[in-house]
Amino acid sequence: MVVAVRGKSNSIRPPRGKARRGVRADRSGAAGAFTLIETLVVVAIIALLLSLLAPGLRSARARMYTLGCSSNLRNTTFQFRLFVEGEREDGRGDSDERYGPTSGRFQIDDFQESLYGVAEFWDLGNPSTVPLASDHAMRCPASGSDLTRVGRQLDLRDAITPAENVSVALNMRLLQAVVEFQGQMRLAPVASCSLSARVLEHPYAPLAIDVDGVAAMRKVGNPFYIAPPIPNVPEDDYTSGAYWSPAHRHHGQTVVGFVGGHVLRSPTPEREPWDWAYQAEVR
User: Is residue 18 part of a domain?
Assistant: First the structure.
């Protein structure tokens, strides 16, 4: 005979210990899965935020580089005025010997050598090879290329390397003027060209230009001086554009520093109504 026990269930129950362990295991697995989902969500949110912030960060960085380049070129124009007025402690170098310290006349290559500290402007207290800082007057930080001044080199092209990393050039028309020779317009020899204090009467004459050193080296092997063709003038050595290699590092624009001390930007500086025609005097 089977006797039913009142209040008791006939179902078989699993051991309590095993049941609890199973529940704990299920809960632990659920917690682990939830943590993984949370992690993936956080990673996705971070990735989304970075994608939203990246353009702004790039834009801010580009503006910083443009500001740095403009500041460096403004320093170049300031140093030029001091050089013209004979206010620099190291004078005008070979130009003072060539024309006399009181003549006020000089060649612009002496000015560029003074900025780099080469040739007669060599810093004898620092003869070693040194990198040029990003805030150097003749550097555009947006170029992202290193530039080094090699020790004990007197010539500019040997002292500043690698040449294709040069990022700021001077206006070549201030170095070599165009003259008529045997019925043709040709570049005058550098030795016959010079500037005087009258250059300050041309504030809109470009002085320093953001240059593409690689392109300049490929064209003429000289990134230190550039100048554009001038429209509506007799054909000359500048007409082909061989000496014109501007950089467009700043949102497609070129930074230009002027004799007057100001700095402007343009996507087509050669088309601007600036005083590109002003050139060195020939004697």
Answer: no
Which of these, 172, 197, 167, lies nearest to 73 by C-alpha position? 167
Beta bridge partners of 187: 178
- pLDDT digit string, tens, across residues 115-171: 998 888 887 666 678 899 888 999 999 888 899 998 777 789 999 999 999 999 999
Full domain range(s) for residue 165: 56-282
Nearest to 227 by CA among 252, 249, 208, 255: 208
Total-model pTM: 0.78
Q: What is the dihedral of CA 208, 211, 215, 217, to 10 degrees?
A: 50
In degrees, rounded to 5, the angle at the alpha carbon of residue 140 between the alpha carbons of residues 153 and 107 is 50
Pair of tokens at residue 55: 């353009």
Distances (CA, A) of 221 to 162, 163, 243: 12, 9, 10
H or E element, residue 47: helix 16-84
The answer to whether residue 10 sits within a structural domain is no
Q: Beta partners for 255?
A: 265
User: For 230-275, what is each residue's pLDDT tens digit?
Assistant: 998 889 999 999 999 999 999 999 999 999 999 999 999 999 999 9
Most confident of 48-57, 149-158, 169-178: 169-178
Q: Domain for residue 49, yes or no?
A: no
Residue of 79, 168, 78 whose CA lies nearest to 121: 79
Query: How distant, in Å, are the alpha carbons of 54, 192, 211 from that of 247?
Result: 24, 30, 5
Say what the pLDDT of residue 39 is. Answer: 79
